[in-house]
Amino acid sequence: MSWLTRVRNSLPFAPRRETPDNLWVKCPSCNEMLFTKEYEDNLSVCPRCNYHGRIGADARLNQLMDEGYELLPAPEVQEDPLKFRDSKRYTERLKQARAKNPHPDAFTAAVGTIVGQKAVVGVQDFMFMGGSMGMAVGAAFVAGAERALEEKCGFIVVTAAGGARMQEGILSLMQMPRATVMTRRLREAGLPYIVVLTDPTTGGVTASYAMLGDVHIAEPGALIGFAGQRVIQETIREQLPDGFQRAEYLHAHGMVDMVVPRRDLRTTLSTLLGYMQPAKAA
Q1: Which of 110, 124, 125 shows the shortest CA–CA distance to 66?
Q2: Domain count, the chain
Q3: 47 and 149 share a domain?
Q4: Pair 59, 179 in one domain
Q5: Are 159 and 205 in contact (CB under 8 A)?
Q6: What domain range is 199 assigned to?
Q7: Does residue 157 form part of some domain?
Q8: Whole-number mean pLDDT of the chain?
Q9: Same domain, yes or no, for 144 and 21?
Q10: What was the pLDDT predicted at 279?
Q11: Is residue 232 part of a domain?
Q12: Predicted local distance difference test score (pLDDT) of residue 271
């Protein structure tokens, strides 16, 4: 035993204070260290630089909807229809994703009210396999739209996705026309379909239901596009402008109707529903 160890053991040091691991969160944009509670109380928006952080489905529903909303049951679909395997089996990837998330797949829908206005709200969760669109996501979208048709109310979808789910191949791509048909049915019924584009919304989701809304709202700074910026740049052999594919750039060029901070999103959606709902459903 060294002399340092003997001295250390003999001195009456106070016990080490345990600090919770989740006490602080680092802003991905400005790198500022924030108290987790302060960050969450501000709706997961950095109070220093206004960076809008990614949030899960439950947090999103709680922020947007009035208390007492009802979660719609997750549709049952065939899992791993292609028996897909890369470095891991697809079933293993699903199991790992479900262990980290409260819902069985990337799309969760609920029916309730937003500041008194009835609506069905579907939320895509990027934390579940990058919010990728597979059969379960497509089925949940269809179920949400069908419930909106039954309730004669608006359907609001909050998107966040990296595109189609590669492990389901062509079956994932088939969800694009399925969702498109449902948006057409909502339009024919005179019911509002509102899309809230959050960071990131890309790939097949952008190429289908994310850009078919009656109104498109984007959160500040959200990445929105089909192909990645690097792919586009290499294809057209030109330097892309600053802020390309960001919410503010798309708003300036007519791709989205408005950019709304998260703190104002709930009241904005309620106002839109009040204008757009059929009179008998308002």
Answers
A1: 110
A2: 2
A3: no
A4: yes
A5: yes
A6: 55-281
A7: yes
A8: 92
A9: no
A10: 72
A11: yes
A12: 98
* Angle, alpha carbons 180-222-140 (nearest 5°): 35
| Contacts with 214 (C-beta within 8 Å, 6 or more apart), sequence order | 187, 192, 193, 194, 276
Determine the Cα angle at 26 with ends 25 and 31, to 5°.
160
Q: Which amino acid is at 189?
A: A
Please indicate, yes or no, whether residues 25 and 141 belong to a single structural domain of this protein. Answer: no
Model confidence over 22-43: pLDDT tens digits? 789 999 999 999 999 999 999 9
The partner residues of 109 in beta bridges, in order of sequence, read 122
Same-domain status, 199 and 110: yes
Judge if 134 and 34 occupy the same domain.
Answer: no
Contact 69/57 with Cβ under 8 angstroms? Answer: no
**Under DSSP, is residue 268 helix (H, G, I), strand (E, B) or coil?**
helix
Q: How far, in Å, are 224, 234, 249, 250, 251 from residue 239 at the CA level?
A: 18, 9, 15, 17, 20
Largest CA distance in the chain: 85
d(CA 278, CA 282): 6
Distance CA 259, CA 224 (A): 12
In a domain, 7, yes or no: no
* 62 and 116 assigned to the same domain: yes
pTM score over 0.85: yes
